[in-house]
Amino acid sequence: MRALLVDRSAPAGLRLGRSPDPEPAPHQALIRVAATSFNYGEIRHVLENAPDGAVLGWDAAGVVERAAADGSGPAVGTPVTTLGHDGAWAEFRAVDTDLIGIAPAGADPGAISTIPVAGASALRALHRIGPLLGKRILVTGATGGVGRYAVQLARLGGAHVVAVTGNPEAHGDSLRALGAHEVIVGPGAVDAPVDGVVDLVGGRQLVDAYQALAERGTLVAVGHATDESEHFPGGAFFGDQGRHDRSIATFFLLACTGLAPDLTWLSALVSAGELDPQISWRGSWGKAAEAAEALLGRRLHGKAVLELDWSVAVATTE
């Protein structure tokens, strides 16, 4: 099959080539991929540590080519969005059926390919915080793919949404259009305690966001964009002065169960225009290096989508 392969000698460490077709396990469906979306974490961390020839990728959308042998999951021809540890950057992908979301007929594969990591991470983080109606929710790193979904979903859930971005002047209007009530430069700028935090940055911002939590508030640590350590000041975990029962929850999406219904629900909202996938770069997978370099350079705010264009020349692996 055709695939994007890890290649240290190629621009951004990726080249188009060929790889063996995946062999699905009984509980897996074979998906013909139409589009995939890049995530900063897989480009920044997974790609740099992967061996040459590997086929990576977490997010992919397409149609079911072969249904799971055990009878689980969607039927042949069903449009889907999928999540996995790897294998998304290829013509075919074998996916566990509990990581497959069914998309509406006619759904844009590029749009729904943004859902698995970004949309599902935002949704599960907000679920961990609890009921949102009337709550104040802080989202750090709000201009990224997960952050933009989190802002929209928190607003949809009835929360008062406070979005954090390093440049409110540049991104304030777009974040307010997604549902943010306030746009601030850092967690330390909040004007009142918050009931929950979706933290996508880590480091100092996580520490400051925890300090902004109200009694019984929860911070969910989803992303670690800064690669910085967290150093809490003395007394940060005292429970007096309105700080009783605050908590920090760690997060790993693929450890969550029951993701297929989440992916299906999110696909319906994106397809209906009720959620904006916030695609900021879209092009053929022949331009994968361009997308990866823009993502690493922090020149993209939102999602980068690659569409599998079979007219692009593909090299043969040795």
Structural overview:
This protein is α/β, with parallel strands linked by helices and 318 residues long. It has two domains: 2-114 and 277-307, Medium-chain alcohol dehydrogenases, catalytic domain (Quinone Oxidoreductase, Chain A, domain 1, Alpha-Beta Complex), CATH 3.90.180.10; 119-254, Rossmann fold (3-Layer(aba) Sandwich). The protein has helices at 40-49, 109-112, 115-129, 145-156, 168-178, 203-211, 259-271, 288-296; strands at 2-6, 14-18, 28-38, 59-66, 79-83, 92-96, 100-102, 136-139, 160-164, 182-184, 194-199, 213-221, 247-250, 279-284, 303-307. Helix 3 (115-129) packs across helix 4 (145-156). The chain is globular. The mean pLDDT is 95.
Write the layout of secondary structure elements.
Layout: E1 2-6, E2 14-18, E3 28-38, H1 40-49, E4 59-66, E5 79-83, E6 92-96, E7 100-102, H2 109-112, H3 115-129, E8 136-139, H4 145-156, E9 160-164, H5 168-178, E10 182-184, E11 194-199, H6 203-211, E12 213-221, E13 247-250, H7 259-271, E14 279-284, H8 288-296, E15 303-307
Parallel strand pairs: 8-9, 8-11, 9-10, 11-12, 12-13, 14-15
Antiparallel strand pairs: 1-2, 3-4, 3-6, 3-15, 4-5, 5-7
Helix pairs in contact: 3-4, 3-7
Concise synopsis of the structure shown:
The chain is of the alpha/beta class and 318 residues long.
